[in-house]
Amino acid sequence: MNTVISRFIIHNLLPPNAPTFTRIHVHFVSSPRRRRFGTVAVSHSPDVSDERMVVVGGGAAGIYGAIRAKTLAPNLNVIVIEKAKPLAKVKISGGGRCNVTNGHCPDNKILAEKYPRGSKEFRGSFFNVHGPGDTMSWFSDHGVKLKIEEDGRVFPVSDNSSTIVDCLLNEARQKGVTLQTGKSITSASISQSGKFTLKIEKRTIDYVDFVEADYLLIASGSSQQGYNLANQLGHSIIKPVPSLFTFKIDDIQLTELSGITFPKVKASLKLESLKKNIPQLTQIGPMLVTHWGLSGPVILRLSAWGARDLFDSSYKGTLLVDFSPDLSNEDIKALLSQHKKQFPKQKVGGSYPQEFGVMKRFWKYLLNREGIDEDILWASISNNSLMSIATLLKQCSFIVKGKGQFKDEFVTAGGVPLSEISLKTMESRIQSRLFFAGEVLNADGITGGFNFQNAWSGGYIAGTTIGQLATSATSAPSTLKQQAA
């Protein structure tokens, strides 16, 4: 079979009017059965002067970090490499509204407690540098009007995530950030000159490029791409597992109540494999019945705090739900006895104490679980039956048989350990000029805008550090620049 040999000269990824950088000659060999590969020889242009920052991932942390670095160091060449569409998760978050951050956590220590992974580490300077208030100010200063809803979630007044996406992309464009989409960085190494050598591939066509970078920011979310690059550059990876998901419940009669909501319940997750008591595995908040089980903020918070233990338990356990957390067991018994005396001739299935705050369909579900005929009169119901109803309202058990997916807004627990980076700079403790931000780190929050705040804070700190380093390098040329000249 004939082999075709072709020669390509691949220029840097910057606009034509930007200062020239390393030009790379790549010789490709391809055949109908073999993927094209390249050998590279690097030659330096004599007018190399500026430094280059490459960002892996065009999500919230990557774009925000790129903008910050370019703001502080306008002469720094900033390139964002994104394999799909930029800011895709921002686009779909909050049901298409984009939950930007949370406005009910002015105390940074309280804010840190919203992160199952990161709660201890984030108590320090992390949010002091750039917290929720700073995030809201940044977007407001860039023309985005925001609102804080009753539960603390912050959304654009437009209720449209495109407002946030457009703001970030426009600012990146105005600052001169170069965005390359449809490409993946598949390998990273350190060259003899101390720079990062990055291999870039495009999936849709046979395309290989090699780019050198002075600074590398990995902000690739939960993509395997980021974990691989971190590993290649000396970092360990804590196995990523899903977080923020719904519970599949083994109860057909419950799932037939799909759509019923509970404004406030107290739910506790029990796992056989878990020997120690974890206070966060008890949560209070709204809950929703779905056609596969249970969802809502209280369930999603439990899934976040129990992410690793649920994974180890094959997503099987027991959920205990208190449907009237503001009432004691004795209060409920008293209300039931009073209702029996007040409405003796009414059917049990047709009336019940409204103080319980449950819908009639769910009340009938409770009666059915206890084997109580909903057509009998209140006068005929036994005291033992009243006690069993009270117990069920306060401690109703459900068998968790698996996990559902929280739409496309998935979050993972795991990634690069926080101990391997400095949260003051977001720089690697293992490799200088290597930075991380966002979900690629072993840090994740509960629902309510906390995961995006992690991205904004990390991206801002990383961008600030890189921008300051690049500015210092411009004012005092480094040894590497002198050698290149």
UniProtKB/TrEMBL annotation:
Protein name: FAD/NAD(P)-binding oxidoreductase family protein
Residues of the RsdA/BaiN/AoA(So)-like insert domain: 241-411
InterPro entries attached to this UniProt entry: BaiN-like, BaiN-like_dom_sf, FAD/NAD-bd_sf, RsdA/BaiN/AoA(So)-like_dom, RsdA/BaiN/AoA(So)_Rossmann
Ranges for domain RsdA/BaiN/AoA(So)-like Rossmann fold-like: 52-464
Organism: Lactuca saligna (Willowleaf lettuce)
Keywords for the protein's UniProt record, in alphabetical order: FAD, Flavoprotein
Record Pfam families: HI0933_like, HI0933_like_1st
Leader sequence residues: none
Cofactors that this protein relies on: FAD
